[in-house]
Amino acid sequence: MKIGIPRALLYYRYDLMWQVFFEELGAEVVISPPTTPAMLAEGSSRVVADTCLPTKVFLGHVLSLVGKCDYIFIPAIRSVTKDGYNCSKFLGLPDMTQAVIPESPPVLEIDIDVTRGQRQFYQAIYQLGKHFTWDPLRIRRASLLAWQAYQRYRELMSEQKLTLPRVIQRRGEVEGAVCWPVAAPVRATIALIGHPYLLYDEYVNHRLIYRLEQASNRVVTPEMLTMEELELAATRLVGKAYWAYEEEIVGAGGHYLQNGADGVIGVMSFGCGPDSLMMDVIQRQAARLKSIPFMSLTLEEHTAEAGIVTRLEAFTDMIHRRKKER
Amino acid sequence: MRVTLPHMGNLCIPFKSIFQRLDIDYVIPPLNSRRTLSLGIKYSSEGLCIPFKLILGNLIEAAELGADTFLLPGGYGICRLGYYAKTQEQILHDLGYKNIKVVEVVVSNDQLSGPSFVKMIKSLSNNASWLKVASVVRFGLSKLKALDQVERVVQKVRAVELVKGTANQLLAETVKAIDQADDYRALKTVQSDYIDQLNHVAKDEQVRPLVVGIIGEFYVLLEPFASFDIESELGKLGVEVKRRLFISEWTKFSLLPNPLKISERDQLYRAAAPYLKRDVGGEGWESVGEKVLRAKEYDGIIHLAPFTCMPEIVAQNIMPITKEKIPILTIICDEQMAKTGLLTRLEAFVDLLARQRRTHYNKQLGVV
B189-242, pLDDT tens digit by residue? Predict the structure, then answer.
């Protein structure tokens, strides 16, 4: 059985976990190729114009998987921490995909809602595993292995300060992970904060990390911080955070504004509901602290490469100058 | 301490009576205006939705009048509304209003917020007894109910009145009278009085008006300013408007205990289930459900949503595929919206519905 995973949205967070889980259960995993302009155009043509960029990219990836797999895996993740909550788009993703792409292969769904309790959570995993095997122990083993793989990958990122493409490269899977050496000598450390699906999708962000690293900057991202560091910084800024993934963004923003970086770039997509509030919180914090420069980059279909390059150059030049003056 | 709360439809009227009766110092912000909106836009980030901007405008205008305690919606399991309060508090703080207090009113669907609401009101009052607080809140709720009852009649009358604007004028008078009503008896008299008056407005008895359902996001549905008072405009075009969402309908289930967990919403959820299986926050699930359920009842549906509203975008993407077909016009509300543009779209939509009805009628007669 071939399971298709679109290389978009939560793929950039859970790819390894899902892959291990399905392979452990004897399925073959097909991941869609990196985003292309055609994918985005096709994805956009299926939905109403105000749908956010990452969702359009996601649908483009689903379209590219049509005919190449037996099932498509689209989870509906409601919460990953107790009393956390996720953006509506993630919750409606399986249904929305089926509605706008009627030709898509059958969708494998899983409802993840940690708030409803452990039992429900295990039940959901079991329901998903049942498509492959009747043996609950095998499903249990697969999910444990998947969870360990995920933990290892988080550790790798936070301990060795690696970006996602580098972690993938380490895994020995060169396909899809384009890596390059950072141009030496490193002149500044720039923190990129934003959702992984924006930071690591080379087409959507116009090779943001590559450009920064080529200009002799070290890039740090939210995943390079430990959960404790993130939580601490987030609590300082917004109290008890309630959004699933935005806590990471606020936490990383709050952390990097005070230590470990020479400049912070907030990357968000136009029309992103959670980010419209969370980036605002960080921007206000930056204005209050006046510690290091902060720039916000908003990505959308019409973002021109030249515009991004100009802004990045201006921003990095300013940081380099600031460092030299000190 | 001076308490205030943002506008949403006639929400301030029950709260006013609660505050007055408990001797709480309060200020109601000026009604939504261009200035409110401009203030809201100026101090919030561009990607935020229109409810946030208008509410922020209300808060700033109230702060100018000396308000320092803000009742704001909040809670878990909804859309970004849950974070409004925290962000708005920071914005007000940055604007120089340092000594402010934000009190979050939990508005989650699946939580029992009645007791916590009464508790919140008690904490604002000067140590009033539980009994008093409860009875005052109850009276506030009945004001809300009376307002909504009258508004339901107004929606019907607007479509068929001979002199356009009569119903709206009566509604404005009702709001004033209900605001001034002191006890249950006065409230009841006002309600039946005005419903009576509305029933006696000169109407075109022959016409069978088109029926349009209005669905979508809570705030833009209930706050006329956010949608250029779309209901009155439809009334002028001779359309009867039906709306499920009223503040009183909503408090009925989320404010009072509901041990059996029965709610009209379940019917909507069941209807939506084949197309959208889970709650996506806000009113997204309900919107899909309402389309499916009411496709036969209404001539058309107008779907209102703020720009970048996450739940409504999901609903908007799913609605076209339902088997139950009915014309839908989605109107995205934001600060860029112009009244002329809205009116043109409404006229076109109403024309389409009228033609559809005519064709249908002719088919029945076998004339086609």
Answer: 999 999 999 999 999 888 899 999 999 998 999 999 999 999 999 999 999 999
Count of structural domains, chain A? 2
B137 Cα to chain A: minimum distance (Å)? 29
Give residue B171's pLDDT.
94
Q: How confident is the model at residue B252 (pLDDT cuts 50, 70, 90)?
A: low
Determine if residue A239 is left, alpha or beta; phi over 0 gives left, psi from -120 to 50 gives alpha, anything else beta: left
Round to whole Å and give the CA distance between A250 and A234: 5
Give the tokens for residue B223: 């706050």
Nearest to B304 by CA among B281, B284, B280: B284
Residues of A with Cβ-Cβ distance to B45 under 8 angstroms: 276-277, 279-280, 283
Q: Which of B87, B313, B322, B334 to mutate to test the interface with A (most CBs of A within 10 A)?
A: B313
Among A108, A126, A156, which residue terminates a domain?
A156
**Domain contains A44:** yes
- Contact assessment for residue B7 and residue B58, using Cβ atoms and an 8 Å cutoff: yes
Separation between Cα atoms, residue A122 and residue A143, nearest integer Å: 10
What is the pLDDT averaged over residues A88-102?
93
**Dihedral of CA B246/B252/B256/B259: which sign?**
negative
Structure tokens at A19: 């892959």
Query: Considering only CB atoms, which chain A residues are within 8 Å of B94?
Result: 284, 287-288
Asked: is B3-128 a CATH 3.40.50 domain? The reply is yes
Predicted pLDDT at B47: 85
Task: Among A45, A58, A91, A110, pick the best mutation site for testing chain B contact (most B Cβ within 10 A).
Answer: A91
User: For residue A186, what is the DSSP state?
Assistant: P
CATH architecture of the domain with range B209-368: 3-Layer(aba) Sandwich (3.40)
Check CB contact under 8 Å for A280 and B307: no
CA distance B141 to B322: 37
> What pLDDT is recorded for position A174?
47
What Å distances lie between residue B171 and A16, B12, B239, B240, B346, CA to CA?
61, 16, 17, 16, 23
Six-digit token string for B159: 């479509």
Does the residue A163 lie in any domain? Answer: no
Verify that A228 and A94 share a domain, yes or no.
Answer: no
